[in-house]
């Protein structure tokens, strides 16, 4: 699907219709290798590695603001450029946060609300400054779920949720770019060639697919009508070419995938592995929920990729790494009837 959605743009921009596919294949094989390695690393080792990993992640998040080593694109600084590979530290931050919180909360302790909020504010704040509000929302959701699965009292939940909602609203209206997306969400017919162009092209793409789709390779939106066709909007191309039926089959595959993760989490041998597996479940589930909701205009467009499907090396590598951790936990699951 990356080839289907990118071949026109790739040939126009790089003279090679396989450009994006080649890059994604490199990330795919790197991810497979890391998944293989992490599947053999005992999950308990992350208890001791969690702090080091978190510190490295924070350093990388700060590094994206340093000219010369960071890459600025679309008005944002989210990537670090290496010799043959560009990496997005915010993707690593999502997994690092899961690993650190699962290690931290594996032991019960009192008075951890303030340290928890300070930590989340630091990491999420760095991501928002890039700016990357979509990833920030995912990280906040992961953090809250892991925190309350660890046994936090309900009154803290009632305090944190309204605070986060008000903060997100404030961030949305404080940025002209985000405010345009928000107003477009409430009125998709406003500015059809400007702010609402993206979502209108997405809906045209989905609507063109009908029940069975117009056929593999027959997409018209990939001829650079649909922005971000290989990343955020790739599900629209899937819906156009394979129709409602193809989209439902893909969603069912994701649901089976989520069921397997929940099964591992429920049968996890201890508190750390339970929180680790639960956090990884939220990592994938929230990305899927936000991406699909934005595609069908239930949420404003946020730039969140579709796991394992969208183009993006950093996201794919981190996703495979998370799967490797789950595979290791699955070796020690307890049979529960």
Strands, helices and their partners?
Layout: H1 2-14, H2 19-38, H3 46-63, E1 70-73, E2 76-81, E3 86-87, H4 89-104, H5 113-129, H6 133-149, H7 154-174, H8 176-186, H9 197-209, H10 234-266, H11 271-295, H12 313-330
Antiparallel strand pairs: 1-2, 2-3
Please describe what this structure looks like:
The protein is mainly α. The chain has one domain. The chain contains 12 helices and 3 strands, in the order H-H-H-E-E-E-H-H-H-H-H-H-H-H-H. It has helices spanning 2-14, 19-38, 46-63, 89-104, 113-129, 133-149, 154-174, 176-186, 197-209, 234-266, 271-295, 313-330, and strands at 70-73, 76-81, 86-87. It has a 3-stranded antiparallel beta sheet with strand order 1-2-3, covered by helices on one side. Strand 1 (70-73) and strand 2 form a beta hairpin. Helix 1 packs across helix 2, helix 3 (46-63) runs antiparallel to helix 4 (89-104) and helix 7 packs across helix 8. The longest helix has 33 residues, at 234-266. It starts with a helix and ends in a 7-residue tail after the last helix.
Brief sketch in words of this structure:
This protein is mostly helical. It has helices at residues 2-14, 19-38, 46-63, 89-104, 113-129, 133-149, 154-174, 176-186, 197-209, 234-266, 271-295, 313-330, and strands at residues 70-73, 76-81, 86-87.
């Amino acid at each position: 699907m990356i080839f289907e959605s990118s071949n026109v743009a790739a040939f126009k921009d790089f003279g090679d219709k396989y450009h994006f596919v080649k890059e994604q294949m490199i990330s795919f094989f790197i991810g497979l290798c890391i998944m293989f390695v992490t599947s053999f690393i005992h999950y308990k080792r992350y208890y001791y590695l969690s702090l080091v990993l978190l510190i490295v992640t924070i350093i990388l998040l700060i590094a994206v603001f340093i000219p010369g080593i960071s890459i600025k694109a679309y008005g944002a600084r989210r990537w670090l450029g290496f010799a043959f590979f560009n990496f997005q530290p915010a993707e690593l931050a999502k997994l690092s946060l899961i690993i650190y919180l699962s290690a931290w909360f594996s032991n019960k302790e009192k008075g951890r609300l303030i340290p928890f909020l300070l930590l989340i504010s630091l990491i999420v704040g760095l991501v928002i400054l890039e700016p990357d509000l979509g990833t920030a929302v995912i990280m906040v959701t992961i953090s809250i779920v892991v925190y309350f699965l660890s046994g936090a009292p309900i009154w803290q939940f009632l305090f944190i949720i309204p605070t986060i909602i008000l903060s997100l609203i404030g961030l949305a209206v404080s940025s002209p770019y985000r405010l345009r997306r928000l107003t477009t969400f409430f009125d998709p017919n406003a500015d059809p060639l400007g702010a609402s162009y993206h979502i209108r092209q997405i809906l045209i793409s989905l609507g063109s697919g009908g029940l069975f789709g117009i056929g593999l390779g027959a997409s018209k939106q990939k001829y650079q009508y649909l922005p971000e066709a290989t990343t955020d909007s790739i599900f629209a191309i899937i819906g156009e070419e394979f129709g409602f039926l193809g989209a439902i089959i893909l969603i069912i595959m994701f649901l089976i995938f989520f069921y397997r993760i929940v099964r591992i989490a429920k049968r996890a041998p201890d508190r750390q592995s339970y929180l680790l597996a639960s956090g990884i479940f939220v990592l994938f589930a929230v990305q899927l929920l936000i991406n699909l909701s934005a595609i069908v205009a239930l949420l404003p467009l946020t730039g969140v990729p579709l796991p394992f499907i969208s183009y993006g090396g950093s996201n794919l590598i981190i996703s495979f790494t998370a799967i490797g951790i789950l595979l290791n936990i699955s070796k020690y699951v307890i049979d529960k009837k």
